[in-house]
Amino acid sequence: MAALTRLLRSAATSGSTARISLSTLASEPKTGFPAGLAARLAPAPTRKERDERNVQWVFLGCPGVGKGTYASRLSQLLGVPHIATGDLVREELASTGPLSQKLVDIVNQGKLVSDEIIVELLTKRLSKGEEKGESGFILDGFPRTVRQAEILEGVMDIDLVVNLKLREDVLVEKCLGRRICSECGKNFNLARINVEGQNGQPGMYMPPLLPPSGCMTKLITRADDTEEVVKERLRIYNDMSLPVEEFYRRQGRLLEFDLPGGIPESWPKLLQVLSLEEHHEDKQLAAA
Ligand code: ADP
């Protein structure tokens, strides 16, 4: 990880994306996912590397799709940190550092922060984790541009990229329903999505994710979750981040996952396609 943080930093500042020797790596990924995809996930880490580290996964998806929710649940299940670059940006905004002023307008207009700044924030976060002995990660919200994907590609092996998908009208409603408890920091969603099936497509129901009564009076809305800004973020996603999906699709590393509904319906199906149901049951047994 030390090498990673050094390389990330130098790649972002020098523009170099020199690749480490990926082609020498063996074929089996660390954690289960569908055999077809596993076979196409080249290159995977060597046995030695696998034994020494945890999963290194990326979550892609439009604003509001639920990347944070599912990435955070999986990170708990797999015992790896969930690193969301949006959270890193919001922490920076909440600080009084010099970067904060620079970022506020960019974020509140729904624009992307520069690749250099975002790589710098991610590098800092990885260095801190390294000091604490963290290994592996689930990245959420990074990479968001092809340049960021190339920088990441140049410095480390990504085992799997999960692409979460939902129809656009639902995404907007979900973003507008998002709330955060200003005290405990947990995320909730007040939107109750109930879309009728059309033209042979099934309907979709997503129950709200309501806060406990203690959080109810402390809920806040993100400044960038207004209808206008959400639509701009979706436009920018289509412009800048769809090519990132294509980047990983071409490499055979992209696992497409159409969310079938809310968490109760989607979570077990996601575990199933990741071949993690057993892992989940083991954890539940251990916790019992
Ligand atoms: P979203 O709900 O749109 O997925 P995030 O919480 O991931 O939101 O990010 C919030 C904001 O932080 C983004 O709109 C963008 O301004 C900034 N940001 C987060 N990650 C990146 C990134 N990888 N590159 C550039 N900007 C980013």
Automatic annotation (TrEMBL):
Taxonomy, superkingdom: Eukaryota
Enzyme Commission number(s) from the entry: 2.7.4.3
Pfam family, one: ADK
Keyword flag Transferase: yes
Catalytic activity: AMP + ATP = 2 ADP
Annotated keywords: Kinase, Nucleotide-binding, Transferase
Coiled-coil portions: none
InterPro entries xref list: Adenyl_kin_sub, Adenylat/UMP-CMP_kin, Adenylat_kinase_CS, P-loop_NTPase
Entry-linked SUPFAM superfamilies: P-loop containing nucleoside triphosphate hydrolases
Entry annotated with the keyword Kinase: yes
Gene3D superfamilies listed in its UniProt record: P-loop containing nucleotide triphosphate hydrolases
CDD domains for the chain: ADK
PROSITE patterns for this protein: ADENYLATE_KINASE
Annotated GO MF terms: AMP kinase activity; ATP binding
NCBIfam families attached to this UniProt entry: adk (TIGR01351)
Family: Belongs to the adenylate kinase family.
Protein name, as recorded: adenylate kinase
Species in which this protein is naturally found: Rhynchospora pubera
Lineage: Eukaryota, Viridiplantae, Streptophyta, Embryophyta, Tracheophyta
